[in-house]
């Protein structure tokens, strides 16, 4: 006995379903592009393009030394205070009076005989300095140890959009 089967039929195309799925995806991509920060195109990339747009570049360097004292400059500039241990943060910031942006940052640590120190974090916070508290932080966290004493230590360089700075640190 033979049973005749109808030939297989193609399922009807659903063009509307494809657009229904693609539409939100395209809208999401467009939203991501439009949501880029307004300053993304105006943040200076090089000093040559920056000066014409009112941007200034300044380098900053501070060291936190034994005794939790912060000194401007490198630790080698303060050998009497920084011989036991130190963390140094240096970096360059571009600013224009309303924003401050990190261009680069470097963190280092040094130790004397009988002490150890390590840097566990080196980075920036509030890049752009546009929101409260209206400054950009360059900073480092670490751990210092000498016989009978060991503590977490930290150093921050606060840079305002006008280029002024202050450093703070401790354990």
Structure commentary:
18% of the residues lie in helices and 44% in strands. It has 171 residues and is of the alpha+beta class. The strands form two sheets. The protein has a four-stranded antiparallel beta sheet with strand order 2-1-3-4. A hairpin with a 3-residue loop joins strand 1 (56-65) and strand 2. It is elongated, with a radius of gyration of 28 Å. The model is unreliable at 1-14, 17-22 and 28-41 (pLDDT under 50).
Could you write a compact summary of the structure shown?
With 171 residues, this protein is of the alpha+beta class. The chain has helices at residues 15-34, 47-52, 79-82; strands spanning 56-65, 69-72, 85-95, 100-111, 116-125, 136-146, 149-159, 165-170. It is built from 3 helices and 8 strands, in the order ααββαββββββ.
**Tally of helical segments:** 3
Strand percentage lies at 35-45%
Could you tell me the mean pLDDT?
80
**Low-confidence blocks of residues:** 1-14, 17-22, 28-41
What would you call the quaternary organization?
single chain
State the CATH class of the domain at 53-170: Mainly Beta
**What distance separates the N and C termini?**
93 Å
* Helix residue percentage: 10-25%
Principal-axes shape call: elongated
What sequence of helices (H) and strands (E) makes up the elements?
A: HHEEHEEEEEE
Tally of strands: 8
User: What structural class do you assign from the helix and strand content?
Assistant: alpha+beta
Overall radius of gyration: 28 Å
| Biggest β-sheet: strands ordered side by side in the sheet | 2-1-3-4
Give a short account of the largest sheet.
4 strands, antiparallel
